[in-house]
């Protein structure tokens, strides 16, 4: 039952996707490769497209993985899976613990949780730096990939270019350099 | 009954309109929600938005979807929450399905392959940016710096599953703060100073 498996996997991912964005990436990557739905390289492509699309990156990845694995029904299954935990937790919080964020236990839980979220994002960066071919023995290719990385970082931080623009520009650089 | 459906449809379309604009998601869309929900529709008041941000941030999942869901709940209960959630999700869902179809057809094309080869490092840059933006609210003292550093090493060298890391972080946070309180130290728990509205 592929659809059920997609739903179940993304349901679990949804529950632990604190911070929403890029912290969820290594979790999805681990699950997707463990199920052999995709390779790490294919998954890097998907983050590129997910980062270019509007909407939250984790949800976009879910739609993508679902569609690639089991078509439109797969996309619906994985998306429903990833957002259902948010709905459940929000409703519980809204009904019972309206002031949950003022609770000292919740606050100290987040005190420990937030650095973990940062570490997950850093881990994702290291992992994809390896799979992108940018950190290998120095060659023309790895050097040019490193340059794309540096220019992208500058464009994002110094010039505040929109992420979608940075992805499109680096894609064009890829076409120019590697065909 | 009819009135209820009309309200749900209105909630759905309000968030449907916000959906495609939520590029990058996160806190960027809060002012947009405020404009629609407080200024235009008068469903909520400005100081309610602070609750929205706090609650959406403490639930798992994306900020944008969580905020919409909570606002929907406040306006029209559980069915309102579902209407708002589907509303904000549907546009991006359809866009990403469209892009998936495109990817499925063209990922063997050598030009597209080359483009993705170039996009790889840009993705790494985007992820670095996300960490850089989040770090000041998460790494607020020596303890949190140590937690983050140990976590990266555990993930990288021992391949500990992220679920274990997240549960471990929650446990470590609660224990460390308790121990410190017993020892008579006070822990500043929040590095986050959000400005909303």
UniProtKB/TrEMBL annotation, chain B:
This entry carries the following GO cellular component terms, namely: plasma membrane
Primary localization:
membrane
Highest taxon of the source? Answer: Bacteria
Q: Which Pfam family is one of those matched by this entry?
A: Chromate_transp
A molecular function annotated in GO for this UniProt entry is: chromate transmembrane transporter activity
Q: Does this entry carry the keyword Transmembrane?
A: yes
Signal peptide per UniProt:
none
Stretches of the chain forming a coiled coil according to its record:
none
Transmembrane region(s) = 12-33, 53-73, 80-106, 112-132, 166-185
Q: What is this protein called?
A: Chromate transporter
